[in-house]
């Protein structure tokens, strides 16, 4: 169902209440998501993005109820990923000659995925497209935010930035606008989205934010491709991104571990106790990786100044769950964070050395050789773990 955004701009997307995993099974989405598509009806009728492939037929049918498809003058493809372009093949079967405006890389992406040579029109930053009534669309390339083909589109006079993946959240809601939803959930999901998807590209994002500011565009609405539309103080999310893109951290230390027979778990608890004794002001959080959402843990890593990782030794190495999580941390390219390690062992005891190697490869600054404990910790060893927690605070 079409919903009015402003003047002649409407939302024509899909709310996905049931979505629980995204990017395959890589990203958890406990609050669902939306696939936001927009219809601009001025002297020219413009469709901006579509929806995910499973909803393609539903999308085309709903769109046809709102406008004669043959009256669509232009299609804007801000990004070729299938959650935004998935309905294009079904739509283009009906209007095959309609011009599609996108970046050069988006042509490669769309051709590669759908194997059609549609009427592509390549645009670059600063290019403009008149839509009538004195209004123009201005294109802004946003490579690696988060694909090489990404761009944003700005509508003059109405001052709407169609930002695609930037500034989004996986948050299913019928209320559509940022001022109408739960603010705690909104900003939690916005940070989770940034930490798990956009953080590797923070250096690029910093430059892109500066570039957008230099263009001098008045922005009254940021219309994202996932989650809510920012209409109430829309630049608040812009400001958040500026903070998050600058090697973000809070006064937080996060302990993440997996355990076999609870010895490593006990050490984690005692290290946490020591941190609290040494610095009551620091926020210390402890998570068993096997019982936690890894994407939520990535958000906690994102907020942390120090990350402490624990694993027992198994087969002269570490638990594969911990190895996989550190690999995910490496992919997300965290900066300005310290790391410490710990673990129990029965015989050979290589886990702390391997943990340090993995975390160093992931770009974290290693504090020391770590806390290494043979067998289950007795009272003396637990006291040593408390002292190790204090040491971390003071390092």
Q: Could you please describe the fold and organization of this structure?
A:
By secondary structure, the protein is of the alpha/beta class. The protein folds into 2 domains: 3-244, Ribonuclease Z/Hydroxyacylglutathione hydrolase-like (Metallo-beta-lactamase, Chain A); 252-393, Flavodoxin domain (Rossmann fold). It is built from 12 helices and 22 strands. It has helices at residues 56-66, 82-85, 88-94, 104-114, 183-198, 202-214, 235-244, 263-278, 294-303, 320-331, 351-361, 379-393, and strands spanning 3-6, 9-11, 14-16, 21-22, 27-28, 33-35, 38-41, 45-48, 74-76, 100-102, 120-122, 128-132, 135-141, 151-155, 160-164, 221-224, 252-257, 283-288, 306-310, 338-345, 365-366, 371-374. The strands form 5 sheets. The chain has a 7-stranded mixed β-sheet. Strands 17, 18, 19, 20, 21 and 22 form a 6-stranded parallel β-sheet that branches. A 5-stranded mixed β-sheet has the order 12-13-14-15-16, with no helix packed on it. Strand 4 and strand 5 (27-28) form a beta hairpin.
């Amino acid at each position: 169902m079409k919903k009015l955004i402003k003047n002649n701009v409407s939302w024509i997307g899909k709310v996905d209440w049931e979505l629980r995993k995204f990017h395959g099974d890589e990203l958890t989405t406990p609050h669902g998501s939306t696939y936001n598509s927009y219809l601009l009806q001025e002297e020219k009728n413009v469709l901006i993005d579509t929806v995910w492939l499973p909803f393609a037929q539903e999308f085309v049918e709903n769109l046809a109820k709102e406008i004669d498809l043959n009256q669509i003058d232009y299609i804007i493809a801000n990004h070729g990923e299938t959650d935004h372009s998935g309905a294009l093949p079904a739509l283009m079967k009906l209007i095959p000659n309609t011009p599609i405006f996108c970046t050069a890389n988006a042509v490669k992406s769309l051709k590669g995925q759908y194997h059609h040579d549609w009427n592509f029109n390549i645009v670059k930053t600063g290019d403009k497209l008149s839509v009538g009534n004195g209004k123009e669309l201005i294109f802004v390339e946003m490579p690696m935010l988060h694909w090489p083909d990404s761009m944003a589109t700005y509508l003059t006079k109405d001052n709407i930035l169609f930002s695609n993946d930037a500034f989004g959240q996986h948050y299913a809601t019928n209320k559509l606008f940022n001022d109408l939803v739960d603010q705690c959930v909104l900003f939690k999901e916005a940070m989770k989205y940034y930490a798990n998807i956009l953080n590797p590209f923070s250096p690029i994002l910093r430059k892109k934010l500066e570039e957008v500011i230099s263009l001098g565009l008045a922005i009254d609405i940021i219309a994202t491709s996932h989650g809510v539309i920012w209409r109430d103080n829309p630049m608040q999310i812009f400001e958040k991104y500026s903070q998050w893109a600058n090697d973000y951290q809070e006064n937080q230390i996060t302990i993440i571990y997996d355990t076999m027979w609870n010895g490593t778990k006990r050490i984690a608890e005692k290290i946490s106790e020591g941190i609290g004794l040494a610095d009551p002001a620091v926020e210390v959080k402890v998570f068993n990786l096997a019982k936690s959402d890894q994407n939520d843990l990535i958000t906690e890593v994102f907020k942390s100044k120090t990350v402490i990782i624990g694993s027992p030794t198994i087969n002269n190495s570490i638990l594969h769950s911990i190895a996989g999580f550190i690999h995910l941390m490496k992919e997300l390219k965290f900066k300005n964070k310290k790391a410490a390690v710990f673990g129990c062992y029965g015989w050979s005891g290589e886990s702390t050395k391997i943990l340090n190697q993995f975390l160093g490869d992931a770009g974290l600054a290693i504090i020391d050789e770590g806390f290494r404990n043979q067998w289950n910790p007795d009272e003396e060893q637990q006291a040593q773990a408390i002292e190790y927690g204090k040491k971390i605070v003071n390092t």
